[in-house]
Amino acid sequence: MRDRLTRLLGTALVAGGLALGAGAARAETSLEFYYPVAVGGPITKIVDGMVADFEKGHPDIKVKPIYAGSYQDTITKVLTAIKGGDVPQLSVILSVDMFTLIDEDAIVPYESLVKTEADKAWLKGFYPAFMENSQTGGKTWGIPFQRSTVVMYWNKEAFKEAGLDPETPPQTWDELVAFGKKLTKKDASGNVTRWGVQIPSSGFPYWLFQALTTQNDVRLMNGDGTETHFDDPKVVEALQYWVDLSRKWQIHAPGIVEWGTTPKDFFEGKTAIMWTTTGNLTNVRKNAPFPFGVAMLPEHARRGTPTGGGNFYIFKKSTPEQKAAALTFIEWMTSPERAAQWGIETGYVAVSPAAWETPEMKAYVKDFPPAAVARDQLQYAFAELSTHDNQRVTKALNDGLQAALTGAKTPAEAMKDSQAEAKRILRAYQ
């Protein structure tokens, strides 16, 4: 009798164990997370570390980062996956791809997922400038994470050598030209060994150009993503200024300047000033072999920069459990403490005012004041160029910019042609 009871008890325990095991398996939610690696520095190690920390505090959620290449590679892989039915649950993709993802019916608005008052407060906690590229039609489609602005870096040693105050960067377009003339250096044969300024025109030429158009107080598109203004006289004037930096004033390298090698050129003294993403801030801090400064971009009609960088998106084909888990992960990654950590370790702009109030961020800014430049510049920022069919519209603008910078077309011709192509592409959305 005792043996029979023992056997029954054992069977019950095994069955119970199996049931618990099945319940545990159901309770664990797995997420695939596409992440773009597009900017210098040990970004993947930072992401891996943050994911590991998240999983320690959330043992029921497993997150697998998949490093998908550049931003362009990432959106291409996501769109391919959507067509093949093998979509990740969440991804960091450029904020400007919001309309494309909506048009593909690929993502869900966050309002459909937030439930609690704490969730709603979190959704309202980001800088308004970043939300311009995150919301449309009264809904929030992306959550700011890897966000940036364009900032100006300068070599203080080069300034001192040129007889300029090493603590005072150029404040206006006219000053940029005047400083650039003093900073541009030639050898005995007349060959330039150091340019005054470098604004990269490969990779993201439209983004750097949008810094100039913002400073000339003109927007490249409407808020609905259905119209562009590439041939506006103020846009043409901004492009003429960029062209003149090399052609007329000869303080900027002619032709196309590479995005990826611009920081290296800065480190090697080939340019005294560079414009690039604040996402390169940590890279510059670690690798510049000279004292450097970071400043807001120079003004013309106004001060200004576009915002930039990537947002978190949650994909529609995820299960309800995966969507809930993805929201938990994104809330954790953008919490004040984590946003501060991300900003400190990468140079990207911490995306909420609360992140800048953390003890860690306050100590960081006190020790390294340039970290606050991009945040302070947000008050002058416009949304980055974003439209329906954004890849093709952006290419139309990039092609025009490069035609003007290489001398194939005048700025007016280039922008007229870019506008005609963008108008043709967007006709279906008007």
TrEMBL record:
Keyword Signal appears in the UniProt entry: yes
Any Pfam family the entry gives: SBP_bac_8
A GO-annotated cellular component: periplasmic space
Compartments, record wording: Periplasm
Predominant localisation class: periplasm
Signal sequence extent: 1-27
Cross-referenced InterPro entries: Bact_solute-bd_prot1, SBP
Family membership noted in the UniProt record: Belongs to the bacterial solute-binding protein 1 family.
Name of the protein: Carbohydrate ABC transporter substrate-binding protein, CUT1 family
Native organism: Tistlia consotensis USBA 355
